[in-house]
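Tip: read the tokens left to right.
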């Protein structure tokens, strides 16, 4: 009888230990120093955000990941960065035209993908933010996104013993302040680098293209490349790509910030990587699929009067050309990035 009790206790302790170590050491969510090494993909330019003043470290990245997926950043603890920026959509918001924020409020713009951010000289559709570290202040304090203050976020984090531990691990002391919150988020989002699509492998001669895809690339280079410049598929400029003003939104884009005539109704040229997943398209999500986007570019008669003159180069595309362009755009999908375990939500079951 006595032995039976000891035996049962022994088994229970073993089960507890195994269970615990599984939760802590689940390799899917484990981040090591190797995981946070910045590797500049071959053929990519020098990044603009270099991490020089925000040295990459596994425990800081882990803190950034936890914050990114935590509702604690919003006023009523219901919205996280990850609720609008979803991993399966290259961190855009799948199937939502305009962003959905706190208190079920609808925003005014389509959620952009988060990828290759360290090569950007400005953020948002109108370039309103010029520093990756400062960027999260906007959604956190925006009354229709997270409606919170940084001061209150810090208070909530200080009250959470789990965060106290995470900050200590990351920074060697328990100081919790906004600089650390913002820097850790920048480590997490800044490492979202996509460079392993079939297009990249084709360029590196590790994969082949079908004739249709090859023709699509040639067409793309002739008609789209000026603005969607390889390898990032953006020249980081602001342009009017022919879409007409939606009078229910009255979004004047870049012009609203600079108040310069030529900037009115221009928007940041989006990088097109993973475009298969980031639907719907444009700053207001007006096009639901790539077919509609390509039809738009081909139909000059429907273009806005203030369109960029470069659009004239596109002309009317034949059905075959449209198919080829479409096929090429699909080669920009990077499954390795979309399934990269480093960016998975650690609160979720592995998938
Ligand atoms: C309610 C939805 C929502 C939430 C929550 C949200 N975002 Fe966003 N995010 C957006 C929208 C919409 C934009 C584009 C805004 C614009 O252009 O005015 C954006 C833009 C961005 C950009 C700029 C991307 C680029 O290429 O220009 C980054 C980076 C970003 N968000 C990171 C975050 C982080 C980090 C958090 C959490 C602190 C967060 N977002 C929370 C909707 C959201
Ligand atoms: C004059 C510059 C310019 C040219 C040329 C151009 N684009 Fe664009 N493209 C833009 C801008 C600017 C946007 C964003 C506009 C907005 O949201 O208001 C955009 C958006 C897109 C989007 C939506 C991406 C997203 O994440 O929402 C796709 C897809 C796209 N372009 C494909 C193409 C293709 C294919 C071609 C060639 C047939 C092309 N573009 C030619 C400037 C250009």
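Filled-in amino acids:
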């Amino acid at each position: 009888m006595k032995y039976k009790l000891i035996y049962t206790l022994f088994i229970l302790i073993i089960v507890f230990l195994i269970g615990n170590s599984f939760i802590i050491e689940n390799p899917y969510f484990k981040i090591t120093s190797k995981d946070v090494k910045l590797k500049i993909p071959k053929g990519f330019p020098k990044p603009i955000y270099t991490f020089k003043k925000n040295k990459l470290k596994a425990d800081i990245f882990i803190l950034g990941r936890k914050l990114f997926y935590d509702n604690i950043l919003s006023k009523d603890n219901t919205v996280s960065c990850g609720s609008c920026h979803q991993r399966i959509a290259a961190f855009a918001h799948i199937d939502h035209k305009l962003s959905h924020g706190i208190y079920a409020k609808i925003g005014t713009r389509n959620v952009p993908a988060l990828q290759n951010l360290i090569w950007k000289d400005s953020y948002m559709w109108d370039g309103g933010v010029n520093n990756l570290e400062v960027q999260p202040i906007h959604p956190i304090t925006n009354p229709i996104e997270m409606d919170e203050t940084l001061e209150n976020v810090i208070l909530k984090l200080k009250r959470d013993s789990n965060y106290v531990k995470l900050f200590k691990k990351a920074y060697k002391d328990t100081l919790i302040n906004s600089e650390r919150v913002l820097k850790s988020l920048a480590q997490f989002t800044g490492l979202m680098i996509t460079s392993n699509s079939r297009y990249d492998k084709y360029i590196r001669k590790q994969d082949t293209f079908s004739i249709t895809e090859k023709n699509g690339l040639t067409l793309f280079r002739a008609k789209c490349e000026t603005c969607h410049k390889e390898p990032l598929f953006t020249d980081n400029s602001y342009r009017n790509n022919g879409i007409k003003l939606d009078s229910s939104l009255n979004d004047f884009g870049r012009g609203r910030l600079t108040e310069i005539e030529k900037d009115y109704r221009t928007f940041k040229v989006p990088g097109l990587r993973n475009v298969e997943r980031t639907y719907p398209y444009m700053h207001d999500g007006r096009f639901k699929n790539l077919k509609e986007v390509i039809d738009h570019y081909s139909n000059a008669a429907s273009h806005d009067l203030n369109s960029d003159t470069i659009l004239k180069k596109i002309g009317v595309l034949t059905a075959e050309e449209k198919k080829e362009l479409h096929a090429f755009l699909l080669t920009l999908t990077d499954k390795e990035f979309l399934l990269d375990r480093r960016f998975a939500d650690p609160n979720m079951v592995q998938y």
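Residues 68, 73, 79, 81, 83-85, 99-101, 107, 109, 111-112, 114, 117, 120, 123-125, 135-136, 139-140, 145-146, 185, 189 surround heme C (ligand 1) (CB under 6 Å). The radius of gyration is 23 Å.
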